[in-house]
Structure formats: C-alpha cells, structure tokens
Amino acid sequence: MVLLIMGTNHILAQTYNILDYGAKKSHTELSTKAIQAAIDDCSKKGGTVIIPKGVYVTGTLFLKSNVTIKMEANTELFGSSSLEDYAEIPLGTEEPHFSKSLFYAYKQENIKIIGHPRSEINGKGYMFKHSHERPKLFRIENCKNIEFDNAIIKNSGSWCAYFKECEFINIHHTSVYNKENRNNDGMNFDGCSNVTIKDCNLQVEDDAICLKSSVDKICENFDISNCTVSSYWASLKFGTASKTGFRNIKVTNCQFFDSRHGAIKILSVDGAIIENVEISNIKMYNCGGPIFLRLGNRGRTYDKSIKQVYKADAKPEGRPVGKIRNIIFRNIEARLTGRIDPPTEGIMFTGLPNHYIENVTLENIHFSYTGFGDLDVKNRVIKEDEARYPEQLFFGVLPSYGMYLRHVKGLNINNVTMKLRNHDNRNAIVMDDVIDSNFTDINFDITPEAESGILIKNSKKLSLNKVKPSGKTKYLIEIQGEKNDDISINKHSVNSIKNIKLTDKAKKKAIKIY
Q1: SS3 call for 208
Q2: What letter would DSSP give residue 90?
Q3: Which terminus of the chain has a lower count of CB atoms within 10 Å, N or C?
Q4: Contact predicate 373/343, CB 8 Å
C-alpha cells in the first residue's frame, strides 16, 4: 500500500496544470506567462504540462527538454493575432519574414506534443494575410527526440511545423490543416535525420511533406507511410532549398489528392546529392505533374537568410551542380487532373547538359491522363532554364502528354500504362539525351494526329521491348537527329524499319531490330 501511494504521488508530481499557474479560459486574455511558467517548472524534473478543456490564447512559447504538452479533450489553444505577442528569435535560413513562431525550441531534447481528436492548436493564420511578418506554428531547431502524437495543428501564418537539424523525430496520427494563408506548408524538415511520419493527414495550401537542405547537415533516414495528403503545390517535395542532400528516404502506402500543381517533386538545384530514395504503393487522384525530377544549377549557398527568387532570367549563384541518382518509383496509380494553363500533367525528368539524372526506376506505373486536345507544340523547344526556380509549370506545355525525359542516364522503365480520357495530339513519350536506358512493357494511348507514339532525340544505348500503342498512328517511333545511336527495338514492338520515322538526318544504322 505504501509503495502504491508513493508511486501515485510520483505520477502526480510530474503533472503541471496550466490553470494552477494562472492561465485564463478566454478568447482574448493571454495565457502566455502562465503556460510558459508551467513548461519551465516541468522541465526541471521532467513531466507533463496539462492544457485542460477550454479556450486559451498565447504568444510565443519556448519548449524545453523533458516536457510533454498534453491537450485534453475539447481544448483549443489559439495563437495571438498580434505580432507583438511573438518573441524575437533568430532569423530563419529561408524566408526571414516567417521567423517568428508560436512554439520555439532550440537545442532541447525529449519534447512531446500529445493531442486529442477533439482538441487543436490553431495559429489563426488568417489574421496575418496582410502582415509584413507571418509566424510559423512550430519552429524546432537542433533538437532530438521529438514526438507528435494524435495532434491537430492548423492555420499557421506561414509554414506549420518546421524542423531544422533535428534528429529522431516521430510524428504519428497527427493532422495538419493549413490553407488559410499563402506559403502554408505542412511539415518541413531541413537537415534532419531519423524521421518517422506515419498515419498522418495533411491538407495544406503549399508543400505538404517537404524535405529541405539549406544547412550543411544532410536530410537522411526518413520513413513515411500510411499518410493521406492534399496540397495545392506538392504532396511530397525535396527542395527547393537543396544545398547538401537527401538520402535513404522511403515513402510507402500513401494517398495524394488535389495536388493540382504537382504531386511528387524531387529537386536538386543548389548542389545537393539526392540518392537512395524509394517511393512505392502510392495512389493519386486529381493531381497534376505526378513526378517531377529536376537537376538544376541555381547554386544558392544559404549563407544568409533569403527570400525565394522566381524570375525567369535567374543566374547561377556559385555552388557546383549536384546529383540525383538511385531513385525508385514502384506501384503507383493515378487519375491525373492537372493545370489547364499551361497543361501540366505528364511525368518530367530534366537534368542539364553533361549533368545527368542517373539510375531511376519506374515500375508498375498506371496513369490516366485528361487529354488536352490539339496543341501546337510538337516542335516546341523546352528551355534548359538551369537557374530558374524549379517548378514544372515554368517549362510551359511539353511536347508529350505522358513522359518528357531529358538528360537522363540509366533509366529503367517496366510495366507502365498511360491512358487518355480525351483526345491529345502529342506524343506519349519524348526523350532527349537519354542514355543507357531500358523500356519494357510500355502501353500507351495514341491518336493519329500525333504521327508517332515515341519521339527520340540525341539518345543512345536504348533498349525498347514490348512497346504497345493503343490507337492508330502512322509510326510507332520517330528518331530525330544524327546524334542518336545504338537504339535496339524488339520485334514485338515494331515489325520493320517502316514503323519507324527517321527525321533530321537520323540514320538507319543507329537502329537495331531484334
């Protein structure tokens, strides 16, 4: 009995109720000092800060080591609508006007946020639409052992949850709703490692799950699974800040929907090395630009806090070109409905001359495309735009509806289906400077107006096996230009050279039918 009482007292001693520190249940009266006092006391021995049923308003709270924040049922914790209630903290690496935050932690450990299905943390981001500064909800930097459990976080003034140079992050059964303002990202991870995101729901205006690299520490060892994600701009994104790199990332069993400006974006434009990424068992609905890989040359150093630059005539800033390699996409189904102006629905991989995207696998990919009618883009030259902000829509209308592949080496595509729901007069696939790559069991819809199903330019060491168009077209493949070489086409794809169109000095000897 004595041991039981001692154990009970020990548990009670670890609990810190904010009402005991003077917090007020109010829509207008601040409880910042009371909540912070509870956090400070709790951190001395470790324990749980209880936020009981009710409505509370707070300014910036500084999270401390060994503190759990627990939201009881029917609790609403609102951020103040006045910037004066947000503490001055160091400028962020990106977007200095997003530096303030509702929760801030620096060099702390063992922090946990426990929510409840009927409670929420609400940043009232709609109050900052015209503000010169727009606070984040969470800004957690150089910390370790961070957990979000069953939390509902919403309506940030800018990015919702930002983690910088943190390790051992576990986010599960957590919902992020962030559509009340511009730049409303969901979860951002800059130079973080050993991160698990599981069974989460994100519905956001900007990038949903976003890995960044503006610091010297690499982003690595991510396990993302069983998440449902909606975003206007990207359900899953690596970049655009891409200085150091991303590696050992696994994403599986997720659903992406309503991502009209693109679903998956993997971007190295500031020198990052991106490698060992596997994305599998994904379903997409009402998305555009399903997979966008971009190896560019913006070359930003991030040695000072900076806003993004979107101008078309951007110039390289100095860092060497990075690498994208060893990427696997497997078991992905999509019903695509992208932008109309410009039509943005196809897969796009684009490196740079002499800087190739390397060793990418697409396997068991089944996509349904809208079809955008008759577009006069067959001979349209797609600019390299090496230093411009990496967004697929900035390249304009592509000459293919299904895949546009440029400056790619070691590509393996197996069991891919591309269906059209409406007429589209573009090629299904366009390749430009694709090297040492294999295409097996490729099925696609095509229309007579396209003239050919696949257009190949400046490419060599290609193998095409079991390429099957659905629909009538004069040629299966068009080979364009004299730089093509060593293109092997299985006889199950074409019966003879007559099924291949040679243009712009393309040579028959570059083709082998076996």
Answers
A1: coil
A2: P
A3: N
A4: no
Reported as a single tens digit per residue, the pLDDT across 203-222 is 999 999 999 999 999 999 99
Q: Which residues pair with 502 in a beta bridge?
A: 479
Residues 238/265, Cβ–Cβ less than 8 Å: yes
Stated as kind and residue range, the H or E segment containing 58 is strand 54-58
Q: From CA 392, how far away is CA 350, in angstroms rounded?
A: 10
pLDDT of residue 504: 93
CA end-to-end span of the chain, whole Å?
85
Q: Are 70 and 103 in contact (CB under 8 A)?
A: no
Residue 338 reports pLDDT greater than 80: no
Return the percentage of the chain with pLDDT > 90, whole number. Answer: 89
Sign of the dihedral through C-alpha 264, 153, 130, 61: negative
Return the structure tokens found at 235.
């359900």
Element (H, E) at 10: helix 2-13
Structure tokens at 158: 């800018």
Note the pLDDT tens digit of each residue in 445-469. Answer: 999 999 999 999 999 999 999 999 9
> Which single residue is written with the structure tokens 């995207």?
357
The residue with tokens 């992208």 is 338
